[in-house]
Amino acid sequence: MEWCKDRECPIDGVWNPWAEWGECSHTCGGGTQQRSRTCEGPYYNGAECSGSLTDTGSCNTFSCPVDGLWMSWQEWQQCNVTCGGGMQIRERVCDEPKFGGASCHGPAVEPRECNTNNCPIDGVWMTWGDWGDCTLSCGNGTQVRTRTCDGPFYGGKDCDPPADETQSCNTQPCPVDGVESKWSNWGTCSVSCGDGVNGRQRVCIGPFHGGLDCQNPLEERGTCNERPCPVDGEWGPWADWESCDVSCGGGKQNRKRTCNTPLHGGLSCIGVPIDTRTCNEDECPIDGVWSEWGMWEDCSVTCDFGLQNRYRNCTGPFFGGKECLGFNSDSQSCSRPPCPAQTKPYLVSRTCSRYLLKYDLRSMATLTNGLIGQSVTSHVGAEFHGETEHASDHIMEERIVLEPSRIPKNVICITVPLMVSLSLGLHGNHVL
Fold first, then answer.
1. What would the DSSP string read from start to end of 390-422?
2. Which of 120, 270, 304, 403 could form a disulfide with 155 if both were Cys (CB 3.0 to 4.6 A apart)?
3. Where are the beta strands (DSSP E) in 49-147?
4. Over the stretch 299-341, which tens digit does the pLDDT of each residue have?
5. SS3 for 35?
6. Which of 339, 361, 376 is the last residue of a domain?
7. Tell me: the pLDDT tens digits for 80-128?
8. Residue 367 phi/psi, 5° resolution?
9. Residue 260, CA atoms < 13 Å, CB-side half-sphere
């Protein structure tokens, strides 16, 4: 054996191990990451590595944290005082965090001042002051002392008069000028609230003994009851009636109204915010209902085959309900002992209930021929003149029967009104 090697054998490319996964595209909620690999070779015209240089996979598929979120603030609660400064609060609810999210930041309760207006304080008299100088140096003068009303404040009541006090002095006679008296009490205010006016008066005392007349006005006007008038709550218009809770048989429906907020100590609305009335009082429709079937009546014949009926009654309908479905009567065949031979009808089992037989009388002649005789055939032909379409109608029973083996092929049943049947005069015999 002789070895030879004129060229290197082909070596196919071989994949090196995958590198580490790269960084995920998202930190939560589902992302992707990639890794890569290199192909070692090929050599000497070997085949390239088969497959992909890169690989993609899912990462961080867990849900992202959702921080808590404050809901809207609720309405402010009622103030704890009516004046002088109080507190009221309002609250809000945190929609809880999910998947490790942060809790809501901030307070769940918010306070604020309310009714900061000062409370009314009534006036209080201070101590009387010293007596003033005498108004006259002679002739019975007067001197006055006054006192000061501490207040009122913030709408409180004024001090009850008088604010000053007068006494005589220098009573010896002398020229006396006219002197105004002290003011009368303020008169009734023109309104009970909302900026009114009132007045007070005084008189001139003197003059005496050649003194001067009074120099100052004897009437004075002032403002009063400057506080806002109370405004009572007032009902808004009624809303439309809501839908009735039933469609028939008597139900209820409501309507609502809203009270406008009273102001300045006014009264709340008097009455109810919801009004109720009856509705849809019409009786509900009741469909008709069949009674049980009655007993079967006696058979319509005393021999051979006949009919017997039974009936039922429909109770209702009421208040627009549906009529009973179906018929109020029912029929069935009945049998009695055979009739005497000379009057025996050719009655058989095939029944056409509530139908009329339509047939070719020549075929009927063939049917009866051999049973009754040639005289029947000629009698039928003479009476009905050949292919008469139908025989005379008679009020008979509901059913018409013929022997199946004797019925011609062209005998058919057609619908006609109830209680109509066919009769043929065949020498006293009847084919019904």
1. ---EEE--SEEEE-GGG--TT-EEEE--TTEEE
2. 120
3. 54-59, 69-70, 86-91, 94-95, 109-114, 124-125, 141-146
4. 988 898 889 999 999 998 988 889 999 899 999 999 888 888 6
5. strand
6. 339
7. 998 888 999 999 999 888 888 888 888 989 999 998 888 998 999 999 9
8. -60, -45
9. 10
Same domain, 360 and 409: yes
Task: Determine contact, residues 83/115, Cβ cutoff 8 Å.
Answer: yes
Residue 186 lies in a domain: no
Same domain, 357 and 408: yes
**Placement of tokens 């008069």 in the chain:** 161
| Structural Rg of the chain based on CA atoms | 61
| SS3 per residue for 235-250 | ECCCCCCCCCCCCCCC
Q: Among all chains, which residue has been given the structure tokens 């915010």?
A: 273
Which domain does 316 fall in, by range? 287-339
- Whether residues 368 and 323 share a domain: the answer is no
Q: Is the same domain home to 317 and 357?
A: no
Of the three residues 273, 307, 339, the one that is the final residue of a domain is 339
In terms of Cβ atoms closer than 10 Å to its own Cβ (0-12, 13-18, 19+), residue 298 is exposed
- Residue 314 belongs to domain with CATH number: 2.20.100.10
Q: Is 405 left (phi over 0), alpha (psi -120 to 50) or beta?
A: alpha
- Are 394 and 424 in contact by the 8 Å Cβ rule? The answer is no
Residue 257 lies in a domain: no
Report if residue 202 sits inside a domain.
no
Evaluate if pTM is beyond 0.90: no
Contact 76, 88 (CB under 8 A): yes
Same domain, 419 and 353: yes
When divided into structural domains, the chain yields a total of 2
